[in-house]
Amino acid sequence: MATGGNAIRGTRVGAGPMGEQDHGFHAERVAISYWDALGNETVRYFAAGIPEEEIPDTIDSPHSGLPAGRDKENPPAVAKTEPYKTHLAYVKERRTEEEADALLDDALQQLRDRRGGE
């Protein structure tokens, strides 16, 4: 019979003599609401004694994956992503042969200057 782990058979992991209060489940908490650009609200709970500067101003919304802020009227903007470019779009952006030759000549000249003008 193959067994694994250190747990004694028949016990829960983390079970012990402490109750829920000792684990912190009943600690005083403060609810902070965050809104993303789509209007989704996310509520996060923080310890009541935590300083205001340690509470983050923005989080990632679990609903949409967008950044969410604490200001309901002005949530963070949606990040702008570039559309997928096809190979043809990259070919159109290539330099002309004259520009490529000028860049190559310039790079070779810089290398010659560094080596002492061979």
UniProtKB/TrEMBL annotation:
Keywords recorded for this protein, A-Z: Transcription, Transcription regulation
UniProt record, GO biological process: positive regulation of DNA-templated transcription
Pfam families found in the cross-reference section: RbpA
Region (Disordered): 1-20, 54-85
Cited InterPro entries: RbpA_sf, RNApol-bd_RbpA
Record-level Gene Ontology MF annotations: bacterial-type RNA polymerase core enzyme binding
Family membership noted in the UniProt record: Belongs to the RNA polymerase-binding protein RbpA family.
Quaternary structure, from the entry: Forms a complex with the RNAP catalytic core and with free principal sigma factors.
Role summary: Binds to RNA polymerase (RNAP), stimulating transcription from principal, but not alternative sigma factor promoters.
Protein name per Swiss-Prot or TrEMBL: RNA polymerase-binding protein RbpA
Source organism (scientific name): Microbacterium ulmi
